[in-house]
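Lecture 7, part B: from sequences to assemblies.

Below are the input chains for today's worked example.
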Amino acid sequence: MIIEGVILIFLLIGTSFNTLGVLGLLRFPDLYTRMHATTKATTFGSIFTSLSVVVYGLWLFFDSKDSQFMVLAIHAFIAMLALAFTNAVGSHAIARAAHRMGIKPSPAICDRLEEFHP
Amino acid sequence: MIPFIITALFGFFIYLVFTAGSGNIGLWSSSELIAGVALGILTGIVTRNFLCRKKNYRMANPIRLILLAVYIILPFFIEMTKANLDVAYRVITMKIRPGIVRVESNLRTDLGIFMLANSITLTPGTITVDIDEKTHDLFIHNINIGEGDEEKAAFKDVELFSLANLPAWIRRIAE
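Predicted structure of the full complex, as C-alpha cells:
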C-alpha cells in the first residue's frame, strides 16, 4: 500500500517534469535555451520514472523471491545511469556543433565564445 | 599487464551486474560465470589501451569509487533537484537573461574536466558549450546571468553552485 503510493508519487514527479521539458521546448526562444529544458527537465523526469520501475521490481522481488524481478530492477537502474550520462554528453555535442556551425544565441547578454574563436 | 588486468576485471564486473539473478552460485549460474570470465579476458585484450590511456591508476582506489557514489547520490542530486525547480520556474514565467560566459576550472585531468562539464550541464541553469583546450576553461551557456555579471571576464567554477561545493568534490575524486 505504502509502496504503491511511493511508485505513484515517483511517476507523478517524473511525468510532470517531462511535461515541463516539452513545454520549455515549445516556449523558449532559441536553440541553447531550448536545450536547457530538454536536457535538464527530461533527464530528471526520466530518472524518476526509472526509479519507480526499480522500486516496483524490488517490491515484487521481496514479495515473491522470484529473481526475474531483481533483474528488472537492476536493468532499470543501469538504464537510469546510462540515460543521465548520455543525455549530458549528447547535449554538449549538439551545443558545440551548433555554435561551430554559426547558430548564435539570439537573445544574449554576452557571448564570450564568439570572442574566443570567431 | 596492469591495464589488461584492470580492464578485464572491470568487464567481468559489468557482466556480473547484468546477469545477476541467473542461478545458484551466489546469484549467478556456472555457465554465466564462465562466459563472464571469457568475455572479460577478451575485452581486456581488445580495449586495454582505451581505459588506462594515461597509465595512471588512481581511479582503482576503492575510496575514490565510494566517494564517486556518494557524490552522485547526495550533493549532485540535491543540486539537480534545485536546478530542475529553477528550470520549471523559468518555463512558466519566461524570465530569462541568457548568454555564454567563461568559467575557470583549476582541474587538470581529463576525468575531472569530464565530470565537471557533465555536472554543469545537469545542474544549475547552465549547459557546457565548448572548452579551451590549453587552459582547460569551459564556455557555458547560462540561462540567467545576474545583473552586472556580464562584464566579468571569467567566473570561478565555485560561483555556479549555490548549495554544495561540487568542484571540491570532483577535485577530491578525480585528481
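Note for the exam: The interface with chain A takes residues 17-18, 20-22, 27, 80-81, 83-84, 87-88, 90-91, 94, 96-102, 117-118, 121-122, 125, 127-130, 132, 139, 141, 143, 145, 150 of chain B (CB under 8 Å). Keep this in mind when comparing with the next example.
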